[in-house]
Amino acid sequence: MSSTHPLKNNRHRLHKLFERTSFDGESVLIVHRGHQFRVAFKAANGDDQGSTRLELVPTLPPLYPAGYSPLSDGAGISAPPRMLTHLPTIVLRHETKRDRTGKRIGLNREVQTGDLIFDDAIYIESDADDEMVHALIGGAKARRSIMTLLNYGFLRVELMGAKSPLALVGLGRASLLSVDSIQEVIEALVEIAVGMPAMRFSNASAKPRPMLQAMRWSLFPSLALGLLVWLYVVITHQYMVFGSGITQATLFVGGALWLVWMGMALVESRKRSTALRIMIFSALFATTTAPLVAYTGLRVTNAVLDRSPVAVMPAVVTAKRVHNSDDGDSYSVDLYVEGIGQDHFSISYEDYLRLPHRGKTARVAIRRGFWGWPWIEDITP
């Protein structure tokens, strides 16, 4: 945390505004109307730029965040609450054009409170049940307080987060925490906290999303594995394939993978408040991952699974090239093999030096390929 907390120079005024204030490291602890808040500011790019976070500190009953439960020795509460389950966090922020687009096309689903002014201005982002959302922000004072905080310039209000039942997050201006505004900000947070019911769920948890989980567990490892294998075959120039057959197959297999992943994302994200964002992210990610996984998978399996005999054949060198760039030179060669055709290959510097000049003949060890695409096992002068 920065040593220039916006409130530290106004200790005396803070003491007059609130029941109790203290400085805990780089945070300010404020107690108001029986509720304790931790106010943190992290500076960046100058004293007036940074991130702001205000958190309600979980204390004794009646207020616990959902998913928290007090530790007890049987005779009573003996320690602060701890998190036992992970319930969906509820994020409240200004509604954007993208949110409205997602709702208009039937992709996003947002809980409506029945308060038209609030529903038009504020977007509720969560997988929580409607009943929980209504229980937390059902009061008119709580909704007005949320709008007041966001209109101040804060980015979002978080309910039932992993660390606190109530948090306020802002970016960009230390003035969000000026001593002139902090009283109204804390008062608004207290109004939200007062309206939050005591919820001590021990067995509740977020709704399982099996397809979305399956997509995550297949998409990310696939990208990592595909990238590693791609780097290996490209850097070492392994399993070089003749012809355009692998390109056409990559388009087909990659397209099929893209459709499967996007179908899984659509089924599991539809009717969620973040559905459109998930679909956009999934589309970008799958568009990168699918062709990479398809190409590397086809190229490697075509060679690794091939059990055909090796055929050593003459290959005419039709071109040799050096490609200069800021990242270093690369090398390529065009080879013509009778009965197979001509193709362009990236080669190593060592192969470039030992291969004959244009118009001369080299010898290549070729195998038929598991998928029927001839590939080069070795090139010799």
Residue windows where pLDDT falls under 50 for at least 5 positions: 60-85, 200-206
Order of helices and strands: HEEEEEEEHHEHHEEHHEHHEEEHEE
Q: Could you say how many structural domains there are in total?
A: 3
Evaluate the radius of gyration: 31 Å
Q: Please report the number of helical segments.
A: 10
Helix amount:
25-40%
TL;DR?
With 381 residues, the protein is α+β, with helices and mostly antiparallel strands. It is 38% helix and 27% strand.
Keywords:
8-stranded antiparallel beta sheet, OB fold (Dihydrolipoamide Acetyltransferase, E2P), 6-stranded antiparallel beta sheet, 3 domains, elongated, alpha+beta, about 375 residues, 16 strands
Structure, described:
The structure is a single chain. Helices cover 38% and strands 27% of the residues. It has helices at residues 11-17, 97-104, 116-121, 130-137, 140-152, 182-194, 210-236, 245-269, 275-304, 349-354, and strands at residues 20-24, 27-32, 35-43, 50-56, 68-72, 77-83, 90-94, 122-125, 156-159, 166-171, 240-241, 311-323, 330-337, 341-347, 361-367, 375-380. The chain has an 8-stranded antiparallel β-sheet with strand order 1-2-3-4-10-9-7-8. Strands 11-16-15-12-13-14 form a 6-stranded antiparallel β-sheet. Helix 5 packs antiparallel against helix 6 (182-194), helix 7 (210-236) packs antiparallel against helix 8 (245-269) and helix 8 (245-269) runs antiparallel to helix 9 (275-304). The longest helix has 30 residues, at 275-304. The radius of gyration is 31 Å and the shape is elongated.
